[in-house]
Amino acid sequence: MRRLLLLFAPMLLANGALTSDPPEIPAPIRAMLDAAIASGNEGDVATVVKLARSADPASGDAVAAVAATWLATRAKERDSTIRQAGAFDLWRGRAELGGYMSTGNTDTSGATAVIDLTREGLNWRHKLRAQGDYQRNAGITNREYLLVAYEPNLKVDDRRYVYGAAQFETDRFFGYTQRYSASAGAGYSAIKSPAVTLNLELGPAYRYTHFTDDNVESSLAARGSVDFDWKLSPGLTLRQDASAYVQRFNSTISSTSALAARVIGPLSAQFSYTVQYESEPPIGRVSTDTVSRASLVYTF
Known about the structure:
Blueprint: H1 2-19, H2 27-39, H3 42-55, H4 57-84, E1 91-102, E2 108-120, E3 124-137, E4 140-155, E5 160-171, E6 176-192, E7 196-211, E8 216-233, E9 236-247, E10 252-264, E11 267-278, E12 288-299
Antiparallel strand pairs: 1-2, 1-12, 2-3, 3-4, 4-5, 5-6, 6-7, 7-8, 8-9, 9-10, 10-11, 11-12
């Protein structure tokens, strides 16, 4: 009998440990966890879990369990909301508006407007973008730019997706009146966190360009893009977007760096710098164009 007790003693002890009550979460940690959950910010909840494990390892698992239950419930509710939403629901985005005017030695005025929209579904993501720039100096218009783009994404899993992209541009002062681009390929979310996101895309493309000198070019191309967002702090965000169309004739590389600082609520002040390079611009045009913008951004 004694030998049997010695044999089964470890199993009995382990079973007792499993059926014991989990440690109680200390009141200060519980208060922080409840506040983070009430804010709805998954990053804040993750931070509280990390701090709880360091401050009170005994209750760390209990804190993580509460957070996991909240995340699972939140995901279930989000999926239900998406399934019941209509085609015009769940759109989120940002609207940007900037302008300036000077008189005296120079008579200059300009304006820029951008709207970015994104709709996240269970299997699809839709992106819409429209941008317009206008500048006038001494009574002469020296910039008139318009871009409209649409990109649907079919999600393969949490990180991989297949994209399509269609885009129209016009910029007479860069040498073309119409430029149509179409592309399809693979996308990958290399970084997905509350603070940092990095999306990469690569695929074949087709471009049609009608230049101001009435020349027309159309050819196959390769398209690649990088979309990087970094929340430096709750009120400060850095964005870096870059894209390239590489083709036999005129290749294009563009890059936009932007720094946005929250002013109040959903309103931010933003400064951005855009560089666009054309490998074979029309005669009389330079290869590189740069635009600096200062604007207000409303996030919704």
